[in-house]
Amino acid sequence: MSEDAIVCERLTKRYGKHRGIEDIDLRVHPGEAFGFLGPNGAGKSTTIRALMGFLRPTSGRAEVFGFDCWRQSVEVAKHVGNLPGDFTYDEQLTGWEVVRHVARLRRHDDLAFARELAERLEADMDRPLRHLSRGNHQKVGLVQAMFHQPRLLLLDEPTGGLDPLMRETFLDLVAEARADGATVFLSSHNLEEVHRVCERVGIIRDARLIATEDIGDLIRRALRHVRITAAAPIDPAPFAALEGAQDVHGDGTTLTLRLAGEVDALVKLAAQHEIVDLEIGRASLEEVFLSFYGRTENHVA
Ligand SMILES: Nc1ncnc2c1ncn2[C@@H]1O[C@H](COP(=O)(O)OP(=O)(O)OP(=O)(O)O)[C@@H](O)[C@H]1O
Fold first, then answer.
1. Together in a domain, 179 and 241
2. ipTM attached to this prediction
3. CA 232 to ligand 1 centroid distance, Å
4. Of the ranges 93-97, 228-232, 260-264, which one carries the lowest mean pLDDT score?
5. Which residue of 252, 262, 275, 283 has the fewest CB atoms within a 10 Å radius of its CB?
6. What letters, b where the CB count within 10 A reaches 16 and e where it falls short, cover 123-151?
7. pLDDT by residue (tens digit) across 11-49?
8. Is residue 81 part of a domain?
9. How many domains, the chain?
10. 109 plus 247 within the same structural domain
11. Residue 44 C-alpha to ligand 1 middle, in angstroms?
């Protein structure tokens, strides 16, 4: 038995010849909020489905609170609230009928929190799912995932289709769940959202977990845009030789570059010149994210 909320050990799922996920090793501690980032088709949903016990691993294993996700999926389901990426239910049912159905399966009669969630999310719970917009569909999905106040929330792209106001409400609800001790595992394309909710992130690409990072470290080590203006022309060569320097352009007294990593050496080198202006800007979160997908030259250690 494990103390961790989630353990994946060499978790692998192949769909016939197609790779779903490959050798995923991961631990999420109780009470932690862990973000799972990756591009389309990277393997996020496959991992979440394996954690819910919906998929039998090809090899390796997954555990939730010490229960094997495949062999003990009934136990796992008791502790988990799950929002699948493609949340669907019987489309003839209304939101409330879905929630009551899920409540029976979970043997959880108390719908007081479901009513609070529905109200705060302004969910349309009285019409059949087939009549609902994508956002309203998603809200029903969130209510059914959260109403029993589970120990672990497994949320696959939870804010898809939500308008900005509802996204905020959802992020507040997740923060409140965490304050009550819940563990959160959230997949997303949106680094901003992950930054708001999570302290650690796993980056998945081409079926493999390529990095697990403290989100603060990730952002600290992220690319910076640097622009130096000196009183006299600057030789770009020593700047180009700095560790993590990219796209170094010298134009007389102005030098621009991008820097992946620490700024200390750059500042010391710049200080050898008479500086008129120095601008160091952090890359956007989007750029940080892209840098992990290998579209720029800086790679994960
Ligand atoms: N039922 C399936 N049959 C065959 N291949 C599948 C199946 N489900 C997923 N895959 C493949 O497994 C890989 C991982 O897919 P997965 O849905 O887990 O990615 P994802 O990171 O969740 O993507 P997205 O962000 O687009 O939802 C993809 O190459 C996908 O084509």
1. no
2. 0.94
3. 55
4. 260-264
5. 252
6. bbbeeebeebeebbbbbbbbbbbbbbbbb
7. 999 999 888 999 999 999 999 999 998 888 889 999 999
8. yes
9. 2
10. no
11. 8
